[in-house]
Amino acid sequence: MTLSARRILVVLVFAASACGPENAAESPAQWVGTINTEGDVTAVMNASGSVWGGTATLLEEASIGVDTGDDSYMLGRVRSVAASSDRIYVVDGQVPALRVYDWSGRYLRDLGREGEGPGEFRYPTGVDGAGRVWLHDQISTRIVVFAPSGEVVATLNLGGMRISGDIQSIVVTADGYGYVFDIVRPDESSAAQSAARLVMRPFGIDGAAGEPIGFPRADNPAGLEVSAGDVLRFTTVPFRAGSVTAFASTRAVFAGFADTYRFEIRRPNDTRTVVERAWEPVAVLPGEAAAHEQAVVRYMRDLSPDWVWDGPAMPPTKQAFSRFVPAESGEIWVVRPGPATFDPDCEEDSFEPDGEAHCWPEQRIIAVFDAEGRYLGEVRVPPDFSLEPRPFIRGNDVIARVEDEAGTIMVKRYRLMLPGER
User: pTM score > 0.85 for this model?
Assistant: First the structure.
């Protein structure tokens, strides 16, 4: 095998070439790992340390949203956030409108309005920006495209597609294609339904649909279900590992099965990067497990009072990761479930039965990897920082929905501060 077909690299980031193993042992924060390329597949093993050499934080630089005051700053059902170089876009289903703010959070205008005519929508659920602003209206199954100045430049018919995706229903690439979720089936027979696959289908500014980019077939574990009449209710077993996927504006597909800290980056040029990291599974505490079991039972018995847990048992440790959040600049934020603590002032019966143990809030661990698969480090986010809808991340700029203790909905812009920065 030639060197061009196979490359093995052992790297210590920021280490001088004269440093030996004893020096590396004295610098545990230093990234240590291997990069092995064979043909179209690159394997990256993150053995220890991190490129950043520590934990990054988020510094708030702008805030949008008030409890009372000007209607332009009162937010309700924020369904999507995005940004251009100098604008912040917020889709608020309460208005409903696409609201535009400048980089400091000052309100500029609304784009579109409720309706079914040109530039109108009934249920806005996704937006992203690449110069022009694309808005996916799932109810009308179309995309409305706005110029930066606000006029409608295109209305694209999606032909009845109603697939919404996990968090963000449209992903826009820099060269002007809007990707929306779709399901491709070999045929309509019931026997072929198991062969259906999830794809991202691109639409150009002229409305023409391009070749879809597919996700790996999901291999999710069995869950729990109950039926009452014509109603079927299904829920997953808490902490049980399953498939996690995401699609990025770089056209990369991120996919992994969360029983181990390993995922793939699949690119349109048919190259793949397999990323692994050493990890210690987080234990499920006895009280935490009991609370989650009670929450599931309460949720299922809300539909059928005689329901009993007859499915897979809850695992003793938590899954390796629960979500991928791709950045516009190529990095990937990997969200991991961390330790939980009991809130003694919380009353579970005060929440609607939804299968969640609300009185055991869980720490979120957010690990960041670069586009090549190297572990950069963790990001410490504020407790009110929300992952729904998907935050907008581009380099050191982070925009996300937050909700304070009083229930005020806001959208905040942060600066990612690396270790040692001020």
Answer: yes
